[in-house]
Specification:
The structure holds two protein chains of two kinds. Chain A is α+β, with helices and mostly antiparallel strands. Chain A has eight helices and 20 strands. Chain A folds into three domains: about 150 residues, Gyrase A, domain 2, CATH 3.30.1360; about 100 residues, Alpha-Beta Plaits, CATH 3.30.70; about 80 residues, Beta Barrel (Elongation Factor Tu (Ef-tu), domain 3), CATH 2.40.30. In chain A, about 20% of the residues lie in helices and about 35% in strands. In chain A, the strands form four sheets. Chain A has a six-stranded mixed sheet with strand order 11-12-13-10-4-14. Chain A has a six-stranded antiparallel beta barrel with strand order 15-18-17-16-19-20. A five-stranded antiparallel sheet of chain A has the order 6-7-8-5-9, with helices on one face. In chain A, helix 2 crosses helix 7. Chain A is globular, with a radius of gyration of 21 Å. The termini of chain A are far apart. By secondary structure, chain B is an alpha/beta fold. Chain B has three domains: about 220 residues, FAD/NAD(P)-binding domain (3-Layer(bba) Sandwich); about 140 residues, no CATH class; about 140 residues, 2-Layer Sandwich (D-Amino Acid Oxidase, Chain A, domain 2), CATH 3.30.9. In chain B, about 35% of the residues lie in helices and about 20% in strands. Chain B is built from 17 helices and 20 strands. In chain B, the strands form six sheets. In chain B, strands 1, 2, 11, 12, 13, 14 and 20 form a seven-stranded mixed sheet that branches. In chain B, strands 17-18-15-19 form a four-stranded antiparallel sheet. In chain B, a hairpin with a 2-residue loop joins strand 12 and strand 13. Chain B is globular. The model of chain B has no long low-confidence stretch (mean pLDDT about 95). Classes of the chains: A alpha+beta, B alpha/beta. At the A-B interface, helix 2 of A face helix 2 and strand 5 of B.
């Protein structure tokens, strides 16, 4: 039977034969047009793998773009707010980029192979934006989302797992470093990056290598508490790490129907990524400079430590006069810290100058009724959890 | 002879002593903890007795440790991580098995293989047990009221206690029926309790295990149902009744507590056994150590069980006679033993299919409650059980830090083992004989088990008494029966962590709410000390 391939519902990643086999619960969701598991067994155990052993996540649906050309270096520096002019080859940098109004479009990671070759990974599609922005630069941009298979291998034993897989001397790779390997006959790029705030790596390879890579890594991690890890568990680890997620913690500028929902980097705790003293111009520089000078940022994105153990999902935040001062964008009970934590977008001066006497109104579901909880919050560092092993070189090995 | 002065001396660096010490140090007090052993941790220790293998030498799993304590003491910062269990299983001599899982519906499917009716009864059973857990949970953190006192604190306390039984809405509409159920639960035998729900022997045997672990009661003894509740009222992140491993063994808990204590200026002094409490005019003023040093403090808090505290290190003449009599009569009977085994590989248990998460947590091989009662009968005669109930687990299956990859550590808890062994008591030879007997019992279910053994440590109640300091080797520091619980724990009139000696307090598991690595006795005792010193208490626990 010839299937008519013009119609595609959701795409399957090159790991689908393996992820679907590993799934005990058949719970999937749509990530950027791909079918990927939300949960394989139980979220608690998957989460634990990322803090105790090795967790494996199919990252393929992430947007991935290759940027080539003699102006590639100059182009990425123009595109993003961070000063990348001194970035070394074979390193990765965390970045955000804005529109000309200085409103954040997305965050992501940029991989530098050389001055003429980069890879950009992010959540929101920007193929069109890249092309439009590239005018006047000698660069070409290529969407590599479908042509690059990617896995996140995260957790305390992840380095040992990958060494067993064939990544020699991986423990020496520094955080935000990357290294090209040839394993089982395929090129595999390994970067010490991730979204869990723990020791971890991301692997990038040809889709033809996907199944072999999955099987070999599962075998390599067999004695190292390896476990596939779904989106729900990732959400838990990224909140603990204080990482933000586009269209969850803030609206991407190009996705915001209501212009007032757009946020500048200063309003989402990303001011540290804006290098106004960068010599060359970058998209949004003028607007950001003005915002910095006038200090008219309206919001801020902060970490909250909340009394009690009921997660403040979707809670409205109030001051002591019961005035609405913001909203929780992500919340959880942290199994590692045994703390009730949240990320919240607050109206300044709350969160910046006023850090005490703020409250979350939590609606806790209890058998078809809601229990209303008025919980005291403390503004704290957004990076709730950052273990020493995360940045250790050489990385921890389990032998 | 050195003289040292502090605000508070805590005797014994077990988890409750360290919890109390940390809370008091956090409140600004100068605290020193004196520990008799060269290592820290009491019964929550991880020791490497065979190179390359870490053992959780005594307690081996974690559920009861209050999350508020972990939060207040920031134990994650000092390395504590709890790893939830994946499941548990009971192996059967006919080659079959019975399993419980992290996922409720998988458990239901599993029970259904043995009895369709039991699978559905399990829903009712878990609801009823959970309801009792909800009633008891707030009581754990409370100082029991003195029912004979007319002090406002006690009157309000009694009301508060009663409220949790009677409040309708808060606890999901508990009515009179549930109060009757509570009283029944606290007094029934686990056999009678389970008979009201289940028909299959294997279901009942699997569930009854929690009712006998650590107690000198049998499954037919009245009061054993409460012991099950005591094991269920813990949680792992909201999953009530769930158990987990402490990454790096149980010693990671006390290590993290020590980290917190040190960060707040407190100190633990190992190898400093307290032999005497120094008193003056009915007040405790200090302690003397075996080394001959004296320590003086405003407050002295003993983490030793009530018998050791008042019959061994305190002069009887400084205590009221009736109190001493009560302490002497306190039931603290050893009933458990343990094997810690270093394995060269993963033992096979053919009853449990490969990859079944049921094999990821505790494993057992007692198929009926009658077998369990038979094991208890042996204990009553002063013998170790010929067909014992074991709670065995292989923490290294989940925890990568206990042994090298591919190597395994197995913890085997054994019920029943007497403190006073008949026909001459314990000696090295009989201890080894006991160890070999347990190895033989396990080998019946695992063909390659014996070949994999590199080393094992045998623990009898005698070792637990001598080394850890648990009188008679009772892991709860006193039997968990109604006559010794809540306002009666450890003895009537002294349930509020204070003692007949002014300035002397108790924080061990001999006090409310009892044993298990819970930390609640320690945190509650610290609160009472702080109240007496007029120091405000802060944190999520209080």
């Amino acid at each position: 039977m010839n299937r008519d391939l013009r119609f595609t519902a959701l795409k399957k990643t090159p790991f689908h034969s393996r992820t679907s086999l590993a799934s005990r619960t058949n719970k999937y969701y749509n990530w950027n047009g791909f079918t990927v598991p939300t949960e394989y067994s139980t979220t608690e155990l998957e989460y634990t793998a990322a803090r105790n052993g090795t967790s494996v996540m199919d990252l393929t649906p992430m947007c991935k773009y290759m940027i080539y050309g003699s102006d590639a270096n100059r182009f990425v520096d123009y595109l993003v707010t961070r000063d990348l002019s001194q970035m070394e080859d074979n390193t990765v940098a965390y970045i955000i980029w804005c529109n000309e109004d200085g409103k954040v479009m997305d965050d992501g990671t940029i991989f530098k192979f050389s001055n003429t070759k980069f890879m950009l990974c992010c959540a929101v599609k920007i193929y069109n934006w890249l092309h439009d922005s590239a005018e006047g630069f000698d660069v070409s941009c290529e969407d590599a989302t479908d042509t690059t298979a990617a896995l996140a291998i995260q957790g305390p034993t992840s380095c040992s797992t990958l060494k067993n897989y064939g990544a020699d001397d991986l423990e020496l790779l520094k955080p935000f470093g990357m290294k090209q390997y040839n394993i089982n006959g395929y090129d595999v790029l390994i970067s010490r990056t991730g979204f869990t705030g723990d020791l971890g790596y991301e692997l990038w390879t040809d889709p033809a290598n996907a199944e072999n890579m999955w099987d070999s890594i599962m075998e390599a991690g067999k004695e190292l508490k390896i476990r596939p890890f779904g989106m729900h568990a990732l959400e838990m680890t990224r909140i603990e790490a204080g990482f933000i997620q586009t269209n969850t913690d803030f609206m991407a500028a190009e996705d915001s129907l209501r212009p007032v929902r757009m946020r500048s980097p200063y309003e989402i705790g990303m001011g540290w990524l804006v290098h106004l003293n960068k010599e060359s111009y970058f998209v949004g520089k003028r607007a950001l400079k003005k915002e910095k000078e006038t200090g008219n940022s309206e919001r801020c994105l902060v970490g909250l430590d909340i009394d009690g153990d009921k997660p403040a999902v979707g809670s409205v935040i109030y001051n002591e006069k019961k005035e609405d001062i913001g909203i929780v964008t992500a919340a959880m009970w942290s199994p590692t810290m045994k703390r009730n934590v949240a990320l919240a977008s607050l109206k300044r001066p709350y969160g910046i100058k006023i850090k005490e006497n703020i409250f979350a109104e939590i609606y806790h579901p209890e058998e078809l009724e809601y229990k209303k909880i008025w919980a005291k919050c403390k503004v704290v560092k957004r990076q709730f959890f950052s273990p020493e092993r995360r940045n250790k070189v050489p990385a921890d090995l389990y032998e | 002879m050195a003289k040292n002065t502090h605000d508070v001396i805590v005797i014994g660096a077990g988890h409750n002593g360290l919890t109390a010490a940390s809370y008091m140090a956090k409140a600004g007090l100068d605290v020193v903890v004196l520990e008799k052993n060269e290592w820290i941790g009491g019964a929550a220790v991880s020791r490497e007795l065979y190179p390359g293998w870490k053992y959780s030498n005594c307690s081996y799993v974690c559920s009861l440790l209050r999350p508020e304590i972990m939060r207040d003491l920031e134990l994650y910062k000092y390395g504590l991580q709890i790893i939830p269990y994946e499941g548990s299983a009971t192996m059967m001599r006919n080659g079959d098995y019975y399993a419980h899982y992290h996922d409720h519906d998988m458990t239901i499917n599993s029970i259904r293989r043995h009895s369709h009716k039991d699978a559905e009864a399990y829903e009712r059973y878990s609801r009823d047990v959970l309801r009792q857990c909800k009633i008891i949970k707030p009581l754990l953190k409370m100082t029991p009221p003195d029912l004979t006192s007319f002090k406002p604190k006690d009157l309000f306390g009694a009301l508060e206690f009663a409220k949790h039984f009677a409040a309708k809405d808060e606890l999901g509409g508990l009515g009179e029926k549930e109060i009757y159920d509570t009283i029944r639960f606290y007094t029934m035998s686990i056999r009678d309790y389970l008979d009201e729900y289940f028909e299959s022997d294997i279901t009942k045997a699997h569930l009854a295990g929690s009712a006998i672990i650590g107690t000198a009661l049998g499954p037919c003894s009245p009061g054993s149902a409460y012991v099950l509740l005591h094991h269920y009222m813990g949680e792992v992140d909201g999953s009530v009744g769930a158990w987990g491993y402490s990454r790096g063994g149980m010693g990671s808990i006390t290590k993290a507590m020590t980290g917190c204590l040190n960060a707040h200026g407190g100190e633990v002094k190992p190898d400093n056994e307290v032999v005497n409490v120094i008193t003056k005019n009915g007040r405790a003023i200090g302690v003397a150590t075996k080394k001959g040093d004296e320590y003086y403090a405003k407050k002295i808090v003993s983490n030793l069980d009530v018998k050791r505290t008042f019959l061994k290190i305190t002069e009887e003449s400084s205590l009221p006679g009736e109190f001493v009599e009560r302490v002497k009569n306190f039931k603290i009977r050893g009933s458990s033993g343990k094997l810690n085994i270093a394995l060269d590989g993963l033992p096979e248990f053919p009853c449990i299919p490969e990859g079944d998460p049921g094999g990821g947590g505790d494993m057992h091989f007692t198929e009926t409650i009658e077998e369990m009662e038979g094991a208890y009968d042996d204990w009553k005669r002063g013998e170790w059980s010929r067909n014992p109930y074991v709670d065995m687990c292989i923490p290294s299956k989940s925890d990568p830090t206990m042994a090298a990859p591919g190597k395994h550590y197995m913890s085997v808890f054994i019920q029943y083992v007497p403190f006073n062994l008949a026909n001459g008591g314990w000696n090295e030879e009989r201890k080894q004989e006991f160890g070999r007997h347990i190895v033989d019992c396990i080998a019946e279910f695992s063909p390659n088990f014996k070949d994999l053994i590199n080393h094992y440590e045998v623990r009898t109640p005698l070792e637990l008494d001598n080394e850890v300091g648990l009188t008679e080797g009772n892991i709860f520091q006193g039997e968990l029966t109604m006559d010794q619980l809540m306002f009666n724990r450890p003895v009537p009139g002294y349930a509020q962590y204070r003692t007949p000696l002014k300035n002397m307090y108790m924080c061990s598991s001999s006090t409310h709410p009892g044993g298990g690595v819970m930390g609640a006795p320690g945190a509650n005792a610290a609160r009472e000390v702080l109240i007496d010193m007029n120091i405000p208490q802060t944190g999520n626990y209080y």
